[in-house]
From TrEMBL:
<dbReference type="GO" id="GO:0004602">
    <property type="term" value="F:glutathione peroxidase activity"/>
</dbReference>
<feature type="domain" description="DSBA-like thioredoxin">
    <location>
        <begin position="7"/>
        <end position="210"/>
    </location>
</feature>
<dbReference type="InterPro" id="IPR051924">
    <property type="entry name" value="GST_Kappa/NadH"/>
</dbReference>
<feature type="active site" description="Nucleophile">
    <location>
        <position position="16"/>
    </location>
</feature>
<dbReference type="GO" id="GO:0004364">
    <property type="term" value="F:glutathione transferase activity"/>
</dbReference>
<dbReference type="GO" id="GO:0005777">
    <property type="term" value="C:peroxisome"/>
</dbReference>
<dbReference type="InterPro" id="IPR036249">
    <property type="entry name" value="Thioredoxin-like_sf"/>
</dbReference>
<keyword id="KW-0808">Transferase</keyword>
<protein>
    <recommendedName>
        <fullName>Glutathione S-transferase kappa 1</fullName>
        <ecNumber>2.5.1.18</ecNumber>
    </recommendedName>
</protein>
<dbReference type="InterPro" id="IPR044088">
    <property type="entry name" value="GSTK"/>
</dbReference>
<dbReference type="Pfam" id="PF01323">
    <property type="entry name" value="DSBA"/>
</dbReference>
<dbReference type="GO" id="GO:0005739">
    <property type="term" value="C:mitochondrion"/>
</dbReference>
<dbReference type="GO" id="GO:0006749">
    <property type="term" value="P:glutathione metabolic process"/>
</dbReference>
<comment type="similarity">
    <text>Belongs to the GST superfamily. Kappa family.</text>
</comment>
<dbReference type="InterPro" id="IPR001853">
    <property type="entry name" value="DSBA-like_thioredoxin_dom"/>
</dbReference>
<dbReference type="InterPro" id="IPR014440">
    <property type="entry name" value="HCCAis_GSTk"/>
</dbReference>
């Protein structure tokens, strides 16, 4: 009998380059590890506000390090994140609420597009350095992700609905309840307990916790 797979939730926002790195690595491992990967689009702005966290770039030395760090990780994980010089103005100056609502509405209607759609938003914002806050750019991303124009229209109409706004808000609050203060927030559910991992550089720890849970189960 197949062992039950460990549920791993990934809370992410496409404004976050580290979320993209974590997302791609988890996407690669979802069929190798014994996990049931669940994408949980949330709103980073809401998490920051609620927990009093400040963007790391507010600290100049940390900003300097981040630029190098993202470059190294992008190369190591083979994810095409590139960091423009004005990266922090970009992040702070752009609102991804519309994009995250679009992703949320897609999740509510056609979740099979969630992975591709999220990736296309990251590609546009973090690889091509294009805008993702305008409706035209959202339409272009949806088309690249393979959504039909009917589906895209439907999703676009849902964006301003209370159902979508509430769903995004609830997902964001759920991440906070698990202890998230930034993104990506990865939550592995092992033996009925949630384990929170922050960032895209804790995946070995995640693997080890999943591994332990698998080997413990075999001895029962």
């Amino acid at each position: 009998e197949a062992m039950s797979r460990t549920v791993v939730e990934l809370f992410y926002d496409v404004v976050s380059p580290y979320s993209w790195l974590g997302f791609e690595v988890l996407c690669r491992y979802q069929h190798i590890w014994n996990i049931d990967l669940r994408f949980r689009p949330a709103f980073l702005g809401g998490i920051m506000q609620s927990t009093g966290n400040k963007p790391p770039a507010m600290l100049p030395k940390r900003a300097e390090y981040l630029l190098k760090d993202i470059k190294r990780m992008a190369k190591y994980y083979q994810v095409p994140v590139t960091v423009p010089e004005d990266v922090f103005q970009r992040i702070l100056g752009k609102n991804t609420l519309g994009a995250m609502r679009f992703i949320t509405a897609t999740d509510m209607t056609q979740p099979k597009y969630l992975e591709t759609l999220s990736r296309e938003f990251w590609l546009r914002f973090w690889s091509q350095h294009e805008d993702i806050s305008q409706v035209e750019s959202i339409l272009s991303v949806a088309e690249k992700a393979g959504l039909s124009s009917e589906l895209t229209q439907k999703v676009l109409e849902m964006i301003s609905s209370p159902a979508v706004k509430n769903r995004l808000k609830e997902t964001t609050e759920e991440a906070i309840k698990y202890g998230a203060f930034g993104m990506p927030a990865v939550v592995a559910h092992v033996n009925g307990k949630p384990h929170l991992f922050f960032g895209s550089d804790r995946l070995e720890l995640l693997a080890s916790i999943i591994g332990e849970c698998v080997s413990n189960n075999t001895s029962n």
